[in-house]
Backbone:
């Protein structure tokens, strides 16, 4: 029957796997690490895509589409960092029953696919800035525990790849895009994130620096990278000879960025807001924001009840609210309540004989189970206000929960203790790579090592003489640490 067998606070991993299936977001697939995105998930992806696509078009970024396949020559070109990832690259080695002369790689990301053509298209400064984005799938044959949305062997994302004449322009765009990622998490998914800079060890090895928005899963005390916006510097321009002649006729290399968010966003939202009754969808991304359930009683005016439901759908839909009615006669109202709670619909409206008689409706909130009766007059205003209230409440609750997990520490012992308490740790750090490697080595274990998550742009005061928590050297910056996905 309905209802989850796993509780979120007892066994988080099993709860998650169950809730994405029972909520009809995901169907497991017969190839490990691959998942079917059902319509309930695809519509969430599309809602975010609509927002992001409009915003990047305002920035004169154009969509394009490059081939899925990468010839081996170019993939190896970016050897220094690809070799670290090489095991993840999937290859096509044959068609039909004949082997391919030369195996072809399936894109794990598209730098090497796109940049030879950037080199061809960019000649003079008038060709700059070149700003392209593509919405596509990528394949990375990951081996560590596959998790729907969070870590899959194929996923959907957008990848932006931009080229500028100056570093200043690139630096500015990195932060403009990062702000869009913050909006996706905080204003659409109601998930609080930290904006910051990755350490040298954690950054994209092919780039100059990496910025990210970092979320935190309080149930298992793990940080998770929400989205990344990299300045590549001139590293790829050098590799792929992407040069241009500036106004003074001098030859120079372009400055590039690349940035991405993926379907991982949906998994983070499920983990943060879901509960033991199932999904809890933020109204801004909910496929259905209001589900209307008729509650007929024997044969008391069933026709009137159905008509009241239908007209409520029309009134709400007419006001741009995503409202549906569940008229199915082969399920009881009680079954429908559980079903739509499992799917995380933010508001339920029940209409029974009493409601009809008093020309009111019973409204039930999914986030806090509050039940109230409201009159049918100005139904739209009431519902809009409640949806807005739910959106903000989900963010506020998630932010309080995340902030309660943050522990500021100054010594190694405090660090180890906070780690054992599954905290998101804020610590003063000397910003030395060897020291970070030491932290990883010293915290290795079956739960995974601790790593730096990001150094927040919003830096707390760092008093003169503050020591690094791990090395005792003079601290240079406050950095978030923790176990992560
Ligand atoms: O993909 C990126 C960097 C960059 N790619 C484009 C979008 C932004 C950002 O994700 C890093 N990266 C991750 N994973 C892999 C690669 C890789 O370059 C290359 C080989 C296979 C696995
Ligand atoms: Mg990876």
Residues:
């Amino acid at each position: 029957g309905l209802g989850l067998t796993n509780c979120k606070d007892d066994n988080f991993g099993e709860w998650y796997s169950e809730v994405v299936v029972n909520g009809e977001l995901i169907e497991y697939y017969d190839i490990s690490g691959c998942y079917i995105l059902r319509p309930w998930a695809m519509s969430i992806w599309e809602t975010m895509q609509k927002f992001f696509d409009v915003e990047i078009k305002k920035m004169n970024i154009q969509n394009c589409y490059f081939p899925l396949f990468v010839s081996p020559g170019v993939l190896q070109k970016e050897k220094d960092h690809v070799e670290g990832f090489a095991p993840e690259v999937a290859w096509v080695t044959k068609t039909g029953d004949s082997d391919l002369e030369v195996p072809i790689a399936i894109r794990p990301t598209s730098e090497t696919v796109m940049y030879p053509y950037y080199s061809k298209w960019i000649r003079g400064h008038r060709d700059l800035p070149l700003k392209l984005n593509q919405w596509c799938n990528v394949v990375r044959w990951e081996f560590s525990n596959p998790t729907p949305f969070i870590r899959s062997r194929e996923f959907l994302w957008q990848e932006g790849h931009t080229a500028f004449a100056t570093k200043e322009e690139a630096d500015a765009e990195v932060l403009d895009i990062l702000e869009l990622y913050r909006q996706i998490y905080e204003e659409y998914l109601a998930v609080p994130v930290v904006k910051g800079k990755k350490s040298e060890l954690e950054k994209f090895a092919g780039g100059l620096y990496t910025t990210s928005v970092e979320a935190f899963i309080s149930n298992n005390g793990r940080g998770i990278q929400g989205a990344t916006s990299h300045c590549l510097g001139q590293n790829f321009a050098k590799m792929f000879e992407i040069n241009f002649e500036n106004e003074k006729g001098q030859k120079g290399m372009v400055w590039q960025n690349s940035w991405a968010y993926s379907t991982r966003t949906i998994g983070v939202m499920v983990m943060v807001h879901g509960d033991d009754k199932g999904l809890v969808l933020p109204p801004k991304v909910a496929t259905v924001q209001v589900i209307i359930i008729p509650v007929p009683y024997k044969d008391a005016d069933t026709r009137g009840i159905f008509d009241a439901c239908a007209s409520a759908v029309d009134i709400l839909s007419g006001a741009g609210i995503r409202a549906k009615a569940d008229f199915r006669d082969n399920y009881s109202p009680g079954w429908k309540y559980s079903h739509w709670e499992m799917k995380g619909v933010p508001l339920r409206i029940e209409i029974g004989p009493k409601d009809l008689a008093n020309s009111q409706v019973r409204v039930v909130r999914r986030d806090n189970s509050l039940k109230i009766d409201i009159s049918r007059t100005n139904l739209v205003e009431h519902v809009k206000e409640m949806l807005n209230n739910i959106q903000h409440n989900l963010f506020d609750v998630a932010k309080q929960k995340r902030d309660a997990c943050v522990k500021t520490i100054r010594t190694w012992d405090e660090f180890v203790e906070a780690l054992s308490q599954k905290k998101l740790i804020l610590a003063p750090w000397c910003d030395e790579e060897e020291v970070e490697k030491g932290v990883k080595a010293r915290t290795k274990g079956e739960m995974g090592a601790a790593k730096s998550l990001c150094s927040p742009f919003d830096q707390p005061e760092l008093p003169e003489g503050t020591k690094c928590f791990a090395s005792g050297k003079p601290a240079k910056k406050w950095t978030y640490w923790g176990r992560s996905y």
Summary: The radius of gyration is 25 Å. The mean pLDDT is 96.
